[in-house]
């Protein structure tokens, strides 16, 4: 996938230190390129997602939850790891099976790089990874981890990041051809089934009531894949843009007995997960400036969200332009807009990859509560209301203040490429990248 940095699709666990009283367990489930409109609980008519429906009905469903970026986010560090350490389309896929028994993956994916590897901790155990087997492997790994922690009465953090809803979609035999939505729906069904298995594993280990399960997605749908991509529902555009469809995500918090079932319209973000989970675990925060908030007041019904503002970064942020848009309360101002190739093919030309960067002065201003689709610019109204002009002034100030405080780190992408660093199951082989190929079981695990 062009233009996207290191990304981790991982399944890992970090055993937390036990203290008195014991902190809760956390299961954080990340979908990939899954849009605001993709789940049955968010209105999709033909998605089949019974486990996520159960979480939505028995947990807290967010309607204003934002990813930190319209493309994928950085990786983390774990005690145990199983997964593909980057996007599974970042390796040739045209001869691989995505749906059994023999439906090849749609498209070609990235060429002239190694086939996607499956890592178990620091070892490549299979290359290329077998997509139809991947879901079951992740589930088994997660089930074993939960059971092991349960037996030892040890609090745990499990991060379960699924590839299924990302191009090229795939599923095992059990889920292939099982939904009216086609390949995307089948892949989503297998993702949903893994959520069901995780919930069952928590039950079986007796930790159901002491575990927060949180589900969300990393960015909006890749509509360039047409019906094989996800859906942002009523929101504008998708992946790669700073319109709502790029960053506003489904989000579900599930903790029977602690998080009351319901729907919240409060503002929240993936940026808030670290401070929230650290607070729940009684863990100290890292000694850095964080742009997240503890969401405990929303989760436990004691108050409103501490987050009042959301800043929208473009896929490739730079210090000269700063953030592209700002949400403050119900209002959103776009200072810059730009299309994205990820967001092509829908009838809305604003989303397209060739739609250039435009600076808006005054900004485009929308009321996201009355107009979540961003159709009606409040500054186009014949009679400008004084409160609208006051909002524009406030938005300008918030953007300027935020941009001024933001310190940009060194670009990882800017460091360049070194093909010798591509993961290879046969490190000494000489005809890279094609020689990096090992069937499952050919390598010690
Ligand atoms: Ca993604």
Describe the protein.
The protein is an alpha+beta fold and 445 residues long. It has a domain at 11-309: Alkaline Phosphatase, subunit A. It has helices at residues 50-58, 131-151, 183-204, 244-247, 273-281, 296-299, 386-405; strands at residues 9-15, 25-31, 60-66, 80-84, 97-99, 103-104, 118-120, 123-126, 156-161, 211-217, 248-254, 262-269, 309-312, 325-328, 331-337, 358-367. The strands form 3 sheets. A 10-stranded mixed β-sheet has the order 8-7-4-1-9-2-10-11-3-12, with helices on both faces. It has a 4-stranded antiparallel β-sheet with strand order 13-14-15-16, with helices on one face. A two-stranded antiparallel ribbon has the order 5-6. Strand 14 and strand 15 (331-337) form a beta hairpin. The longest helix is centred in the middle third of the chain and has 22 residues, at 183-204. Bound molecules: calcium ion.
The CA-CA distance between the termini, in Å, is 29 Å
Number of helices: 7
Number of strands: 16
Query: By helix and strand content, what is the structural category?
Result: alpha+beta
Helix content: 10-25%
**Biggest pleated-sheet summary:** 10 strands, mixed
State Rg.
22 Å
Mean pLDDT: 92
Per CATH, the architecture of the domain at 11-309 is 3-Layer(aba) Sandwich
